[in-house]
Design goal:
It is a single chain. This protein has about 130 residues and is of the alpha+beta class. The chain has helices at about 1-20, 35-40, 65-70, 90-100, and strands at about 25-30, 45-55, 75-85, 105-110, 110, 120. It is globular, with a radius of gyration of 19 Å. Residues about 1-10 have low confidence and may be disordered.
Length: about 130
Amino acid sequence: MFRRVLALALLLGAGASAAAAQRIETALVAGGCFWCVESDFRRVEGVTDVTVGYAGGETANPSYSSVTQGGTGHLEVAQISFDAGIVSYAQILHLFLRSIDPLDAGGQFCDRGESYTTAIFATPAQ
């Protein structure tokens, strides 16, 4: 019985060390439709989560319809959480820039308007 408990404790300890070894960082990008950006990055090895929302505007708690109608100043964004031990911030930005047209000031692809323009937001040092 003692050996089983010891083996289980060792296994649990190894799992905790592996989880603690993750270096989770975030990138915040606007690349047109946030659901498209989310879909692209959920497939990237090392990405642990992608959350979509709005950034850059002045209106508190904007709705989807108010942002897409324009005038709030918000962009559709994706917050990408990733394990920096697997994929780097530079690699995340490289993939992002390959999936957008940074020279299109009117939006992205068939999504037109202010809320669909592109940006890379600075995040606090991690």
